[in-house]
């Protein structure tokens, strides 16, 4: 204690405890690599405070947008398995290795992307290129939509898994429109006009800038 000049095993009974200042919590490497137009959402909280996370779009993401490469540690066996995530392997120097992500400091944001369980919810395909794994969008992704991935056809063969094929988009409008879940409108901060998608809001803001 600097006030009474004594070296104590515990708190000073005369002057009391020290005021403890904690370090600022730094996000993990994986969370820091998340692109600005994507966000993480907690989908479920399991025992032991374990969070089940999903990656969601904040703006429209165009078809054929490539993400990657996937960052992980090459391993002959998996140290971390999650049934909601894809198991990934790569071919390196003639050997087949797992892309393992034992914790968030060993990978990038792509480790949070959950697997697609059917054709309708799949928005990404995973494939191998030059010893790396990439994800590419197979259709436009609307705001508030979760990014979900499955293997591309050739990569599915490499992984000895079944392939999920995405239907090509048709130019013919359906006779009976399918009802979508309502989403919060995007509001212009200048004139308070509302828009159904972020893309429409962006184009509207461009008009304001042109006028200025």
UniProtKB/TrEMBL annotation:
| GO CC, alphabetical | nucleus
Which GO molecular-function terms appear in the entry? zinc ion binding
Classification via PANTHER family: PLAG1 LIKE ZINC FINGER 1, PR DOMAIN ZINC FINGER PROTEIN
Q: Which positions fall inside the C2H2-type domain?
A: 186-212
Q: What is the lineage of its organism?
A: Eukaryota, Metazoa, Chordata, Craniata, Vertebrata
Protein's name in the database: PR domain zinc finger protein 10
* Signal recorded as keyword: no
Query: PROSITE patterns from the xrefs?
Result: SET, ZINC_FINGER_C2H2_1, ZINC_FINGER_C2H2_2
Q: Known SUPFAM superfamilies for this protein? A: SET domain
Quick check: keyword rRNA processing in the entry? Answer: no
Q: Which GO terms describe its biological process?
A: regulation of gene expression
Q: What organism does this protein naturally occur in?
A: Phoenicopterus ruber ruber
Q: Which keywords has UniProt assigned to this entry?
A: Metal-binding, Transcription, Transcription regulation, Zinc, Zinc-finger
Tell me which residues make up the SET domain. 38-152
């Amino acid at each position: 204690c600097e006030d009474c000049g004594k070296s104590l095993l515990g708190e000073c009974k005369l002057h009391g405890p020290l005021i403890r200042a904690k370090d600022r919590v730094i996000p993990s490497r994986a969370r820091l690599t998340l692109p600005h137009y994507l966000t993480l959402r907690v989908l479920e909280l399991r025992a032991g405070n374990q969070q089940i996370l999903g990656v969601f779009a904040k703006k429209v993401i165009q078809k054929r947008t490539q993400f990657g490469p996937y960052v992980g540690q090459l391993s002959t066996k998996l140290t971390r398995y999650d049934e909601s995530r894809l198991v990934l392997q790569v071919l390196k120097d003639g050997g087949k290795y797992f892309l393992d992500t034992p914790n968030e400091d060993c990978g990038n944001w792509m480790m949070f992307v959950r697997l697609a369980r059917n054709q309708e919810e799949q928005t990404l395909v995973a494939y191998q290129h030059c010893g790396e794994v990439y994800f590419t969008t197979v259709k436009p992704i609307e705001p508030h939509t979760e990014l979900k991935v499955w293997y591309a056809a050739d990569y599915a063969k490499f992984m000895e898994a079944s392939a999920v094929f995405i239907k090509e988009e048709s130019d013919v409008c359906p006779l009976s429109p399918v009802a979508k879940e309502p989403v919060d409108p995007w509001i212009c901060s200048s004139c308070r006009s509302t828009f159904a998608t972020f893309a429409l809001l962006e184009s509207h803001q461009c008009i304001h800038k042109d006028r200025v």
